[in-house]
Prior knowledge:
By secondary structure, this protein is α/β, with parallel strands linked by helices. Among the domains are: 72-222, SPOUT methyltransferase, trefoil knot domain (Alpha/beta knot, 3-Layer(aba) Sandwich); 237-294, Trp Operon Repressor, Chain A. The chain contains nine helices and nine strands.
Amino acid sequence: MRNVLKVKGQRPSVEPKARHRPKEKGHKPKLDPQTKQRPQATGAAFLWFSSRLGHLIAGVSGVCIEQSTLFGMKIQILTIFPEFCEAVLGSSILGRARKSGVVQADAVDLRQWASGKHRTTDDAPYGGGPGMLMKIEPIHNALAELKTSTTRVVMMSPQGRPFTQKTAERLAGEEHLIFVCGHYEGVDQRVADHLVDEEISIGDYVLTNGALAALVVTDAVLRLLPGVLGHEESALGESFSTGKLDHPHYTRPEVFQDWRVPEVLLSGDHGAIARWRAAEAERLTRERRPDLLDAPPSTEKPTV
Ligand code: JCQ
């Protein structure tokens, strides 16, 4: 098992090549007044194409651009709470990645495919019991329209396989992800059996809203894509290699109240610093996550 929780060289990032950003004006989609969604298919395709075009133009016009800016990924979160997702997708690092054209990440309102006056997406369970279930038809119809030949459909569910850094790396290699988000007591089982490629769980607890889990996965995947964090190094070269928890980090001031930064970190002795960090990582892992130390190698498919 590789180090799932350690990321080297993280720091607040800066937009890497602001001058290559496509103009945002042309990217403002018109919203359908009824659904509050932008027109699907053609609108999305145009936006995606035009975001890539910006990079291509930068490329042929002789400006030196990183190869990474030509990569891209499309993520669609299929949910009855699109505004909730948009609030997260539009903010800070993800919002910037979106505007830069490196990624296209959108919430898609499932109710667009719900029929009837009330646009119902849920119903009572066969066999009785409390609560409501998501119906299969709206999800089926949405996927029929949104899927392409390269789409991977993921459903967020407590019954899914555990989400790890390995999963994030594998999904980061996909071209197009659609997240199906469960709510209420769950989703008609035929969705998992026939419409989705895999079920993923972000942990052993139950949420009211699967979109929350999809946003967690989206964040973990998108930060691996070149250009999202603004690292100079490739995200693919990022290290998770020790299989342990990360060691502690310190920054200024040297003393706050009477809490000192460990002396070794001020010593300038790089060998001693490396040994201290390795020992701290080992100690923390033994104390809090002994499961990581004796974990057999992950069975999940290797990285992108
Ligand atoms: C995801 N860990 C918890 C809740 C049922 C598909 O069926 C259901 C989905 C949800 C939402 O997801 C989670 C979750 N990973 O609660 C109930």
